[in-house]
Design goal:
alpha/beta; D-Maltodextrin-Binding Protein, domain 2; 5-stranded mixed beta sheet; 3-stranded mixed beta sheet
């Protein structure tokens, strides 16, 4: 009986030993076959946290793929991206800015052609008009995550205190400036917002587009003068503070009764004001004469490195980021309302589409046919900086708007030709 028990114990121990060997061997083999790819993005702590959690879930679903995460805030990301693209050390999968397609891939060869990955990326979730934003020279360089447009967010509580309705025309906004008289500002914006706002006004006044999709300037010096004069009038008549003194904290305090910002920045700019019990509402796209003067663009896009050694695995990660229910759950609408039909359906079914940003999205979606597709050159930082500098020269009587408009016309053309 003792012999039988000892034999059974020995066999059991041998079995456990063998199972341990098998498990260890399986793990070793799994690690040996594991592919490592890299993924980069920019954002705040909230974005970093949910993205890392989503990547861990992707690795769980795809144990043969390990993802190295590279992330930082915007300015650091942009600077690092310049170096990496020049040295061919960029991540396998990366979040990119819309303007970078022209900057890094003028011939379509700067990024991987995602069209080659149709076995791994579900294109049925996108219309061709969506994919066109990432097309360059017949190659799909990137896929947009969400759409963006400049949006006006008004503090109705402050407007109500002055007995004012929310502005619907250019005249309305100047009338609000007269009534508030510097105690509050009817509107506020950073430099890029002022750039878009002034272009919108000038386009509606002239019936001309500022530039075409190829980046050719269509304004003449007289048209640019309209932009300069409009900006100075906004500041002088106390509609808005000079962009150089713009302070986001004044939105939450109510000192600014409105702000022009990207649709995707609704939470970033207005969340604290809502917490302070202010009623923040979406403003109409101001006036509509000959042209809307309002533009639509991808908020951001995902691209794959032309140098990747693992296009299949990179394509799988790209598809997960855009189309999976797991990523949709983690991300919600933090990066904008997703274009992907699968992601959007998931958010709708789980009641995750709500709030100020979604209200801004609905306005954009309702007016989508009237919003113009933006040129990648539209947000060139040199153009915006030169315009801001010229505005200050005119504002502080260092030059006339006619003289600065002529200078800007030449400068704009030089910058656009160079790029």
């Amino acid at each position: 009986m003792k012999l039988k028990f000892s034999l059974l114990a020995l066999l059991s121990a041998f079995s456990l030993f063998c199972n341990g060997c098998t498990t260890e061997k399986t793990v070793v083999e799994s690690q040996a076959n594991q592919v490592q790819i890299s993924f980069s993005w920019w954002g705040n702590d909230t974005r970093n946290e949910y993205t890392i959690a989503a990547i861990e879930k992707f690795e769980e679903l795809n144990p043969n793929i390990k993802v190295k995460c590279n992330y930082s805030e915007w300015s650091g990301y942009q600077a690092r991206n310049n170096v990496q693209m020049a040295s061919n050390t960029e991540s396998d999968v990366m979040q990119i800015n819309y303007a970078w397609i022209n900057q890094y891939s003028p011939d379509g060869n700067g990024y991987y052609d995602i069209n080659k990955l149709s076995d791994y990326v579900d294109f049925s979730n996108f219309q061709q008009s969506d994919l066109n934003f990432g097309m360059q020279n017949g190659k799909l360089n990137a896929i947009p995550i969400a759409y963006n447009t400049q949006t006006i967010y008004y503090n109705k509580t402050i407007y109500d205190q002055y007995g004012l309705k929310l502005p619907k025309t250019w005249d309305d906004i100047f009338n609000a400036g007269k009534i508030m008289n510097g105690k509050n500002y009817p509107l506020s914006m950073a430099a890029k917002g002022a750039w878009f706002y002034c272009i919108s006004y000038a386009e509606q006044k002239t019936g001309k587009g500022f530039m075409n999709l190829k980046g050719d300037l269509q304004f003449n010096p007289d048209d640019i003068k309209i932009m300069l004069d409009f900006y100075c009038r906004l500041v002088n008549e106390k509609v808005m503070p000079n962009v150089e003194s713009f302070d986001k904290l004044n939105i939450s305090s109510g000192d600014y009764a409105g702000v022009l910002a990207w649709l995707s920045d609704a939470k970033n700019y207005c969340d604290d004001a809502q917490k302070n019990s202010y009623d923040i509402q979406i403003g109409d796209y101001t006036a509509n004469n000959k042209l809307d003067g309002w533009y639509i663009k991808p908020a951001t896009l995902y691209a794959i490195s032309k140098n990747t050694d693992y296009p299949k695995e990179s394509g799988m990660l790209l598809n997960y980021l855009l189309n999976s229910k797991e990523m949709a759950e983690y991300q919600g609408i933090e990066k904008g309302i997703p274009i992907s039909k699968a992601a959007l359906t998931y958010l709708k079914e789980n009641s995750m589409l709500n709030g100020l940003q979604y209200d801004a999205y609905k306005q954009m979606d309702e007016n989508k046919s009237q919003l113009k597709m933006i040129s990648p050159y539209f947000e060139n930082e040199e153009l915006i900086d030169d315009f801001k500098s010229a505005c200050n020269d005119v504002l502080y009587n260092k030059a006339t708007s006619s003289d600065k408009a002529s200078e800007l016309y030449d400068t704009f053309n030089e910058v656009l030709i160079k790029n």
